[in-house]
Each structure stands twice: as C-alpha cells, then as structure tokens.
Design goal:
This protein has 214 residues and is of the alpha+beta class. 25% of the residues lie in helices and 31% in strands. The strands form 3 sheets. It has a 7-stranded mixed beta sheet with strand order 3-6-7-8-9-10-11, with helices on both faces. Strand 7, helix 2 and strand 8 (110-117) form a beta-alpha-beta unit. The longest helix has 21 residues, at 18-38.
C-alpha cells in the first residue's frame, strides 16, 4: 500500500498471490542462511520487518520484505527492501525502488525489485541504489554537483529453457552473480568469515526452479 498525503491518492496492491509472496520471501531467505553460516548470533542479525509501513515527507509505503541492522532502532528505515510484482509492471516496480531510495534520504541502501514473467517463465531481478548523478547540470535550483540519484546497478535474468531446446527444463542466467554488499546491509565492515552476500548462478537457478516447479 502507498499513500500520498499531499494529493490524497491511495495506491493499494491486490491481495498478494502465493507466487508473488514466494518470489521475495525465498530470495530473502538466502540472507538469513548466510548469517547462520557466518555464526552471527540471532540478536545481532538483520531484523526482518516484513511489510512495515514507512513514512516519507508526503507519502507512506509498505515494502514486500525489508531488513534493518541492529544499529538502527524502531522507526528507523531498513537498509534493504524487496519489492516483487506478478501483476504489477516493471515500470511500477522501478517507481517503488525510487520511492524508497529518495524518501529515506539514502538510509535505504539497496532495493531489489523482482518482476515475474509467467509467459516467458522468467524472473528478472534489478538492484537499485543511490549513485552519483551523471550529466547533472548545476543550476540555481540544482546546486549540488555531488547529488545522488536512484540508479539501476545490476540486472539479473533467470529463464527456464523451453522443452523444444537441447536442454529442456534447465535455466539460463544472465547478469549474475547478484551481489549485496555487507557494508550496505549492516552499516559496518565485515569480520571474517562475514562478507558480501553473493547469489551465484547455482543459487539463482535453485531459487527459480523452486519458484516455478515446487
């Protein structure tokens, strides 16, 4: 749900389907597994916030899944948000990503959007972050030469190969691996064996196969 207090507009997503939920929940589980494998105590792990509502200057919004480090307290923004869409178009998901990055003032470090394409048996993941603006013209209204803007940093596609190919039932991954930087998630430097969370080709294929076939 998204509410704009300046215009009074209320945008409500349709009741999430099982496929919609499993797309982001099962991908986010990899973060939980990594923390367990690193031996991070439960009380020091990222806190799952589910679909908590967060408020910007003139609008509020719920993510599908979000996580916040223990260095932040109740009411603080998460560092990573997942948004997925089955009926929701990719353009709308990109608007969602920009909302989180801009309205949090940069406190949200990563937004992962997952677009489900049933006709192509394809899952598309885009990673959005704030990045220095390119070709920004410094004007009186825009006087900050170091301004940051929401930017698509990575795109990963996982597609099931059709039955009439030489490898039926297999998957093709392009743009991987998907990398989530530890510093961005936890707001601290990693301590071995901690490190960036890397979704390898193998991990992404298992996720896609579980999504489409389970």
């Amino acid at each position: 749900m998204e509410h704009h207090t300046d215009t009074g507009d209320l945008i409500i997503k349709l009741m999430p389907s099982e496929k919609h939920g499993s797309a982001h929940i099962n991908l986010a589980e990899e973060i939980i597994e990594k923390q367990i494998n690193w031996g991070i105590p439960r009380e020091n792990r990222l806190k799952g916030l589910g679909g908590t509502t967060f408020h910007g200057p003139s609008s509020s919004k719920e993510g599908d899944t979000a996580y916040r480090p223990i260095s932040r307290t109740i009411g603080d923004w998460p560092t990573i948000v997942f948004e997925s869409g089955l009926s929701e178009g990719l353009a709308r998901l990109r608007v969602d990503a920009r909302w989180w990055l801009i309205n949090s003032g940069g406190d949200v470090k990563i937004v992962l959007i997952i677009s489900v394409k049933p006709a192509q048996t394809r899952l598309l993941i885009e990673k959005w972050c704030l990045s220095p603006a390119t070709n920004l013209r410094v004007t009186r209204a825009n006087s900050n030469p170091n301004a940051l803007e929401p930017t698509k940093m990575q795109e990963v596609s996982i597609t099931r190969n059709p039955a009439n190919t030489t490898q039926p039932g297999t998957y093709t991954v392009t743009g991987g691996p998907l990398v989530l930087e530890f510093q961005s998630l936890y707001l601290r430097a990693p301590v071995a064996p901690e490190g960036d969370i890397i979704f390898t080709t193998a991990i992404l294929i298992v996720w896609a196969r579980y999504f489409w076939e389970a």
